[in-house]
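Hi R.,

Here are the chain sequences for the assembly we discussed:
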Amino acid sequence: MSFFLALLLSPWTWRLVFENALIGIFVVVVSFLFYKKQKWLDGKILLSLLVILLVVQYKTTDKQPLSALGDSQKFVQQQRLHIYPPTFYQVFGHYIWFYPANWFEESKFSIWVNRIQQNFSEVVDPGLYFFANHPRQRVGFDEFEKFPYVFLPFFVFGILKLERRFCWQKGLFVLLPIFLVSFVGHRNQYGPIGLFPFIVVVCATGMNAFVKRFAGRQSLKVLLLVFLSLVFLQVMSYEYS
Amino acid sequence: MNTRRFRWVIIEILALCLIVVFGTFFYLHDLARVPPGVYVDETVTGYNAYSLNLTRKDEYGKSFPVALRFFGSYSPPVYTYITIPLVRVFGLNAMAVRLASSVCGIFGIIVFFLLLKSLRITRSRITLLTTTFLFAITPWNVFFARTGYEIYLGFFLFFVGVLFCWLSLSRKTYLLLGFIFLSLSTYGAHLERYLSVFFAFSFLFLFRKNLFDRSNKIVLFASAVAFGIIQIPNFTLLDTTVFFSKSALFYSQQVISQAEKIRFLPEIIAIPLSFLREFFSQYVAYFSPRSLFFLPDPDPQRSIPDLATFYPWMVGPWFLGLLKLWTLRKTNAGRFIFLLLFLIPFPVALTKDPFSTQRALPLLLPISLVTTLGLDMVLQKIRLRFAFPLVVFLLVYSIVLLWRGYFVLLPHERARVWGYGFQQLAEVIKENPDKKFLIDQSRTKPVYIELAFFLAYPPAEFQQEVDQTIKEDYYNKPSFSSYYKFGNIETRNIRWDEDIYKRQILVGDEFAISEQQAKEHFLTKVLEVNDLNGNPIFRGYETNPEMKCKISPSSLCTL
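And here is the predicted structure of the full complex:
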């Protein structure tokens, strides 16, 4: 029940299904199998499905070279090259020069590190999944609602429940997509779909644990369901307004 | 105490002294030059301290106010009062205005060390010193410890109050000191006016089993009385607009406009839902790794180029620390950190700025504690001989990032937003006492205070030249007008239909007066002030009313 609630009340599911039914259904199936791991389902099969999902993610992403700079970034780089003070040390009468401007601003390594950091920071930001990056929307991105914001407490609760019985599949389901997005970037109309199964499963786990805690109180469950439905309507209104 | 332990205590004390020396260097090095210029909030603090020193009255002629009417914001006054002797000793300059924050920063290192040590949450021997050093050089800490207005002082007083409250769990009498500092912090900065009260109540509630017993009655009573007595000046302002001066920061308009988008639901449901999402999104932004470790504050005046509030590598310890904190949730230390972590963003999340590092400064404390937990998890798992080089590498890497961002990039890239150029403009004005200057105010923060500061304009004269009705109802005049006229200066937007018919110098930024306008109105360029990159900040043009009247006569020509 929790799993289907987490799945059906997510605008991201509907967006995926409506924009590309094949991808949408595949993502839903992978999420379901990941959630309801049966005996017949070997870990390797699950991992293969994750790899296929990551290939889809990779293929649908508008990839930017890690060392490429936009016009404004190039302008800033040129400005910065001139502002570092000359840095040298005198050792036994010899001058040893350092070139911090080139190291920090021009070297490919530092540009890569910055780009990877930026991609990583965006993919691990809860705001991306639960608030369409509000209040710090990115310039030039189509920010869309992925999960209703009320799922965030369930997600946090789910993470804490997950940590106790952490297994390698779960680790891979979160680390591999983050690793991939950190390198290929975010320009993907479907969002970071590689992380979809993990987030849905964690939210469902959290919701399950929450419902179990209030097992005897039916009225509370009904109230929660009504509230979740209202928030779903709210989030869908933002998405399609 | 055995010899080994005694030796370790000596090492700790020496290392702490070394960290304080490093911190002193970071907080005082080139303090007058970096940040470049003097920001309006600093100049208003400095000029009011100068005015209070010379006349015992603020810029509006009000004698020692309980809240200072800075641009209608009614700022808590302690920072300005502390700055009075500094201005007297060092003169009216950037150094004098920023020094009190820096000194608080230096003492803050010791307070952090004491808090961390008393919390007993670290296991590795080197974590305590490493994270104290890291706290001292954290971008968030360094940046605000070098700004000359009330933010850091408010945080520092709150921080000391928090330390004593924590210590009171083991020695009850400290509660009195804790409450005194918490109460004092409400005169430190805007946020602490609310935060300290919330914290005091929440602390008492959360640790009621430890604090509320018969043997502790007197201390509890004395603490409450001390807190209340210190609040008396604030109580006298309850019927004024002082406590609502920041109400414009609430996102009521966003809530309404978002609620209008929810067409399926009635307003009575849509508005609370809309508020809930807005509040929740703002609240979560203060825990977002993207905001904390990677993205600088969106306001360029409140951030270091390419640096967020913490160093990017600290994201790992942050995640690990959160997991560790969860395991400590039933301990007093865990509950105390949880209280700080979840309480501080509450009032901040009610304001519309996305991730305001200035308002959320007290969050520096719990986040530093959580990253300490994470770093400790890592360091206790590796041997000292490997941990030590790792720590040295991370600290050196962090210092290099700080040096690059704060001491190299910031002076060049943020000069304009920090008010660079006003000093040079003031010098030109001083050199031309017989000429009239009209400073365009359309795109800049209040100009008058920058010029009054750099000209060290006599406060007694200034008090006579401002709106005299303000001091009559000082605490109920929050609306601010940027129009000022004092000495040979007038600050307002340029009125092109009349200002060109008067002999004066029109001054504005590079967009205020175009080449075309200069040609059309016979204006002669007489001054240009550039930033450190050579880009113009101000341009000044002298009018030629005779020529203008000759070519296009106006009724103003006869005057």
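Chain A touches chain B through 33 residues (CB under 8 Å). Chain A has two domains: 2-65+111-239, 71-106.

Let me know if anything looks off.

Best,
T.
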